[in-house]
């Protein structure tokens, strides 16, 4: 599809990947409808988008509220008359051992990350069905392929988003809706405020586990998918290598990831007080929002890329050797 002149709805546009994607879409000439809970941050992103000569609309929305997502689609239709692209991206994380994750938080993560995407897909596909064309992008995670410890609800939600994509593509194929696409994006660790925003009952500060890619790397992948839709796209060399290795040897890769997450995603030095983070409401201390999370994405990616590419292979080889011996 042609991005210039199209109308794109982006959820989670107040920070991180959603914000970077909205700005990139505007730079390429798309009108954008921006959704998240932080109204002030959305207005700022909308103003930045307008500087590229496109129209933009900020619609404060809680994606876990089906009525609010319906209103979001209505506002987009009223203002622009159509919806060519719908990017389901708004999501929250949770860091805690399974038994220490409050059930209310568990449900909230699934409500935002799964039902929020379901509500978005319903609005988008209804409109795209009437138009006869359109693309839905669902931002999942490589965690949807290789689930991690201490993030059970988040890992479940990202696996569910991938399954949703497969189901929807099957239905579209049966309906011969050749010009309607549903694509799933699987990013690895990205330099955004995601880790500061999540609920945390682990007692340890949540960190972005290297290698860390920039939010713009995901935005570029999303724009490539709009030009040439594919069912699934993994972002970055490390992500692609991890997914490929997991399909080949799931057990050693899962064992390796568990150790990596325990060492690299939850700090052993910095404690963290138990907190629901911003899963129930926007982060008050971060009203303006930002694209990056202060994890120095580009530098850390370059520095760690080679190491991270070698480590899984070494770990897998060691695990296979161990298994053979036993
Ligand atoms: N960062 C990573 O390492 C990483 C890796 C793989 C996948 N991802 C995925 O990438 C996507 C974007 O995350 P990010 O890294 O950009 O994190 P982020 O900076 O925390 O962005 C999350 C966005 O979702 C919005 N949001 C959260 N709850 C919401 C709700 N109930 N209703 C509406 N909006 C809500 C937040 O804005 P408000 O607070 O203003 O609502 C924010 O704009 C998510 O799907 C995440 O799972 C991230």
Automatic annotation (TrEMBL):
Q: Which domain of life is it from?
A: Bacteria
Q: InterPro entries, per this entry?
A: KR_dom, NAD(P)-bd_dom_sf, Sc_DH/Rdtase_CS, SDR_fam
Q: Which Pfam families match?
A: adh_short
GO CC, one annotated term: membrane
Q: Which residues form the Ketoreductase domain?
A: 6-183
Which GO terms label this protein's molecular function in UniProt?
A: oxidoreductase activity
Alphabetically ordered keywords of this record: Oxidoreductase
Q: Does the keyword Oxidoreductase apply?
A: yes
Alphabetical list of PROSITE patterns matching this protein: ADH_SHORT (PS00061)
Provide the family line.
Answer: Belongs to the short-chain dehydrogenases/reductases (SDR) family.
- NCBIfam families registered for this protein in UniProt: PRK07109.1 (NF005495)
Q: What is this protein called?
A: Putative oxidoreductase
Identify the species of origin. Answer: Arthrobacter saudimassiliensis
